[in-house]
């Protein structure tokens, strides 16, 4: 299997390593990034973003906001399958369907960073076939829990597990004062660890998630309900949270 990965960042490199491909090429708008990615993987090569070479599989590994344009530009370089690892399903699947109507198509979303792999890996298989099946098998063999979903189910879940979760953690970080670590409780200490996990990454990635998925306003509204509640109302909200 010959694989072209468009977007040679962390997740593009992760996909290439675990795809089961016999030959890998990286293309990126930053040619140095593509060359570094290729140097880190045995027998991989860097190719220009406008290459006219053809590959069995093209994997789009770019930010969510760039997926549609990237699929339009590069889907034609695939002879068998076009897939993505962008992190959302609605727009990705629509772009795959539009620009690769006669290819196998799948949208994968690794629910982890490459440094924390393996992990849960939802996939929407929009047009199945042997190539997508081989990719799924390779990713499963790498220890990932690959499971099928729909664009609607996936994106609805991301509102909670990404947009709302990130908002809650960052809001705590913005509101919290610095305290002596000896004061931390069994609840606040892991919250501090979550803050460190979130703020140690790339803010643009989190900004894209907040822009793409609803959920932040619901967290803000819930926090305001708690802040405004009297003792009785707070108890009711506490019980509601437990349900």
Architecture overview:
The protein has helices spanning 10-18, 31-39, 67-74, 90-99, 130-141, 151-175, 188-199, 203-212, 216-228, 231-242; strands spanning 2-6, 23-27, 45-46, 55-60, 78-84, 104-108, 120-127, 145-148. The longest helix is centred in the last third of the chain and has 25 residues, at 151-175. Helix content is 49%, strand content 17%. It starts with a strand and ends with a helix. The protein has ten helices and eight strands. α4 (90-99) links the parallel β5 (78-84) and β6 (104-108). It is elongated. An eight-stranded mixed beta sheet has the order 3-2-1-4-5-6-7-8, with helices on both faces. It folds into two domains: 2-149, NAD(P)-binding Rossmann-like Domain (Rossmann fold, 3-Layer(aba) Sandwich); 153-242. The chain is of the alpha/beta class and 243 residues long. The model has no long low-confidence stretch (mean pLDDT 95).
Quick recap:
The protein has helices at 10-18, 31-39, 67-74, 90-99, 130-141, 151-175, 188-199, 203-212, 216-228, 231-242, and strands at residues 2-6, 23-27, 45-46, 55-60, 78-84, 104-108, 120-127, 145-148.
């Amino acid at each position: 299997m010959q694989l072209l990965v468009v977007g040679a960042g962390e997740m593009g490199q992760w996909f290439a390593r675990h795809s089961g491909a016999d030959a890998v090429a990286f293309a990126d708008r930053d040619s140095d990034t593509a060359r570094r990615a290729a140097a880190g993987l045995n027998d991989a090569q860097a190719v220009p973003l406008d290459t006219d070479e053809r590959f069995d599989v093209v994997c789009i590994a770019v930010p969510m906001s760039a997926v549609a344009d990237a699929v339009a530009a590069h889907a034609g370089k695939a002879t068998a399958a076009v897939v993505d690892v962008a992190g959302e399903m609605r727009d990705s699947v629509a772009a795959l369907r539009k620009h690769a109507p006669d290819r196998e198509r799948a949208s994968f979303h690794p629910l982890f960073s490459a440094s924390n792999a393996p992990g849960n890996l939802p996939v929407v298989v929009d047009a199945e076939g042997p190539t997508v099946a081989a990719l799924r098998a390779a990713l499963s063999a790498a220890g990932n829990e690959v499971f099928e979903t729909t664009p609607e189910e996936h994106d609805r879940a991301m509102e909670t597990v990404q947009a709302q979760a990130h908002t809650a953690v960052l809001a705590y970080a913005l509101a919290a004062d610095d305290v002596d670590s000896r004061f931390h409780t069994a609840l606040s200490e892991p919250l501090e660890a979550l803050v460190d996990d979130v703020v140690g990454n790339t803010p643009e990635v989190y900004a894209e998630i907040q822009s793409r998925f609803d959920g932040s306003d619901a967290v803000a509204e819930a926090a305001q309900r708690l802040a405004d509640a009297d003792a009785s109302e707070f108890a009711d909200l506490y019980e509601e949270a437990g349900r």
